[in-house]
Amino acid sequence: MFDYTIDAKDYVAVIDIGSNSVRLVVFSGLQRVPDVIFNEKILAGLGASIGEGGKMDRGSMDTAISTLKRYKSLCDQMHVQDIRTIATAAVRDAKNGPKFVERIEKECGLDIRVIDGCEEARLGGLGVLSGEPTATGIAGDLGGGSLDLARMKDGSVFETISLPIGPLRLMSRFGRDRSKTKKFLRETFSTIPWLSDCEGENLYMVGGAWRNIMKLMMREKSNPLPILHGFYSSRGEITAYCRRISKLVAGDVPFGGSLPSRRREVLPTAALILMELLSAMRAKRGVTSSYGLREGLLFDSLDDASRKIDPFLFRCRVLADERCRFAQHAQVIYDWSRPLFQRKSHDPELRDRMHHAICLLGDIAWRGHPDFRAEKAVESILHGHFVGVSHRDRAYVAVALNQAYGAPVDVPHLAPMLPLLKIDDIMEARMMGAALRLAQRLSGGTVAVLEVSRLSMTKNSLYLGVPPEFRDIANDVVRRRLRQVAQLIGRKAKIEILTP
């Protein structure tokens, strides 16, 4: 499971010409979870005037052209050979879109792919699946000029539609008339027959406006982990929040002052769209995705084997190879500690993933100062650039790594995360961390002892079995760490000398 090959490849740049922003993202290459080398956006507002006159205005196009020249220059300086330039709703719908494309190609030296709405929705759905392979429901990508919907199930996208209802377009058409906007949205959503088939599934929210809404909601809730990807809330809670935001003047949105003015202006209308879509599909919850169209474009270029790799464990393996002394021992430690898992789990596959991740990241902070290694390890998982993992899962791994470095569970760098977990999960994660700590002390960083020793459990006891020739390696330090594991699972610790 850990035999992932990570090859260095040439950078890939994606230039995304959208209705509100023009963005450049340079990725480290075509791999399962590429690193972001460079990321910049300019709010050009190309779609702001389309709803009223059908054309992009001159000032917005000039801003976009200037930005694209900069992006092309940056790519040249980075020696990026693979530049993928895509244009979406504003360019494809504007009457002057074709002339604008000609101008870009002539003045900026970029080859542009103007993608249609269904393709944009498909790529957005693939982007969500890239970051969350088990996503079931609808990926909704809200741009300034359009809303792209893709239905996802079993790792595939099988229904798509693009709707001309981005906030810039609706504001151009209806202004601040909330009643007319709401009526139009309900009429539009009622024409999509498969929306109602998604009752009880999730809406995966993509796009700057919706991400900003969720970011502000997290601030109002004082969410313990300020990471957008994987943050979710119930339909009722999001709807109540959006209803309040949709009735406000943009300048009065709580915490809205932290956003650029152009981003802030679309929040009330974007909130209204989100509220009505959640209602139309009778969603269970809304889930924030930091992956979308650009990531989907790269994901679509991967072979089938690469697409099936677990994105969370992929990143754990990358970090282990970069930072851990004994990354190659992760599988041995995983196999050695498996007998500890006798408690039934509602999701054994998820627990198995967390177990693998903990084994991979168990040595991630060894270079840190001894007094701060636990804090460093916890920070790496809580704030690291991971996808395919929820806030709860991050907290679970953090508890285990904190325990592996011998820190108490109520330390300030971890305690605020504990409410994300149930008490049984906290105890199980601590047990995993204690088992990792035992394995590292027993083995001294080698695999020989782990391969010939074993853990086993009865109803009352936890046994560490060692061969006679390794009798002396189970010293007092090992015995103390074995007792710590046993205490966390309610057993007595015993050393067992294995017979040949």
Word description of this protein:
By secondary structure, the chain is α/β, with parallel strands linked by helices. The protein has 21 helices and 14 strands. Strands 8-7-6-9-11-10 form a 6-stranded mixed sheet, with helices on both faces. Strands 3-2-1-4-5 form a 5-stranded mixed sheet. A 3-stranded mixed sheet has the order 12-13-14. The chain starts with 11 loop residues before the first strand and ends with a strand. Mean pLDDT is 92; it is low at 1-8.
Unreliable stretches:
1-8
Structural class: alpha/beta
Instruction: Determine the strand fraction and express it as a percent band.
Output: 15-25%
Task: Give the number of helices.
Answer: 21
| Sheet with most strands: strand arrangement | 8-7-6-9-11-10
Molecular shape: elongated
Radius of gyration: 26 Å
Helix content: 40-55%
Tell me the major beta sheet.
6 strands, mixed
**How confident is the prediction overall: mean pLDDT?**
92
Number of DSSP strand runs? 14
Distance between the termini: 31 Å
What key attributes describe this structure?
single chain; 500 residues; alpha/beta; 21 helices; 16% strand; elongated
Quick rundown:
This protein has 21 helices and 14 strands. It has helices spanning 50-53, 58-77, 89-93, 97-108, 117-131, 167-174, 178-189, 208-221, 235-246, 261-265, 267-281, 293-299, 304-307, 311-323, 330-337, 348-361, 373-383, 391-404, 423-443, 448-452, 476-488, and strands spanning 12-17, 21-27, 36-43, 82-87, 112-114, 137-142, 147-153, 156-163, 202-206, 232-234, 285-288, 454-457, 461-466, 492-497.
